Amino acid sequence: GNGKGHGGGGVCAFGGIGMVEMLFRSNLFAIVGGGEFPAFPTEKVLIWDDHQCKWIGELGFHSRVLGVRLRRDKIVVALKNKIFIYNFEDLKQLQQLESVDNPLGLCALSSQQDKAVLVCPGLQVGQIRIEHLDHRRSNFINGAHTSNLACVALSLDGSLVASASEKGTLVRIWRTTPRENTGEYLEQELRRGSDRAQIYSIAFSPSNAYLAATSSKGTVHIWPIISSQHDASQTLTTVWKRFVPDYFNSKWSLAQYRLGDDSTSACSFGTKENTLVVITSTGKFH
């Protein structure tokens, strides 16, 4: 850009950008400075309107912003131990949540209009917090993982959440509301591999038929999602779970694709069920 940065005409100052989050496919962006020489303060979230070509708002904090998520009516900002929720229209603070150390700024926000669901780390290691924002109701999944969370993702409709820990061997799919008869959240357990890896990103397909994940092994894994309601063996599996190691209970991926490098990557399904887009930090597009 040719602007003079924050306060000037254009979106870009000279310097680094740490985060850009777009509201759907619209003209609104949340931008946070980053890198060795940040273009903007790393403790601020700046809102840019690309139609008007100007800054339309900012949120300031006492510590570094680690994550930002947007939906039509809300902005969610993750700091190291706190999650702030704001009303998009007037940037008024609605809620403040505490969390365990969250150095990756993990949080996921559903985009469906009638289902405002936020997922973030809970108050203990490996715990997932599910916040139903319109009802001010919290659910906690205790012991979702034995180590720190490394990645979380929500389905488009906000009904399912996928999580991986820093071990990166398993991806677990959970319901965002517990099953009525058992109170259980776990839907499925998926295996990426048996050795450690960092899970970079997880994505649900539009109709929740598939789940994809990319990792530091330089591969994309794709699994079919089987709703437990249709899985007759689920009850039996639950009984045996106590006696059999995770290794035998988890489902292996349906397909794997090698990216050719192990750099940080992000994946997302297209509008069609059978298209998957992967972008790597080395500039490759698959």
Structure description:
A 5-stranded mixed β-sheet has the order 13-14-15-16-20. The radius of gyration is 19 Å and the shape is globular. It is mainly beta and 286 residues long. The two termini are 27 Å apart. It has helices at 234-240, 246-249, and strands spanning 17-22, 28-33, 44-49, 54-60, 67-71, 74-78, 82-87, 93-98, 108-109, 117-121, 128-132, 137-141, 149-154, 160-165, 170-175, 186-191, 199-204, 210-215, 219-224, 251-252, 255-258, 265-269, 276-280.
Summed up, what is this model?
The chain is mainly beta and 286 residues long.
Please specify the SSE layout and strand pairing.
Elements: E1 17-22, E2 28-33, E3 44-49, E4 54-60, E5 67-71, E6 74-78, E7 82-87, E8 93-98, E9 108-109, E10 117-121, E11 128-132, E12 137-141, E13 149-154, E14 160-165, E15 170-175, E16 186-191, E17 199-204, E18 210-215, E19 219-224, H1 234-240, H2 246-249, E20 251-252, E21 255-258, E22 265-269, E23 276-280
Parallel strand pairs: 16-20
Antiparallel strand pairs: 1-2, 2-3, 3-4, 5-6, 6-7, 7-8, 9-10, 10-11, 11-12, 13-14, 14-15, 15-16, 17-18, 18-19, 19-21, 22-23
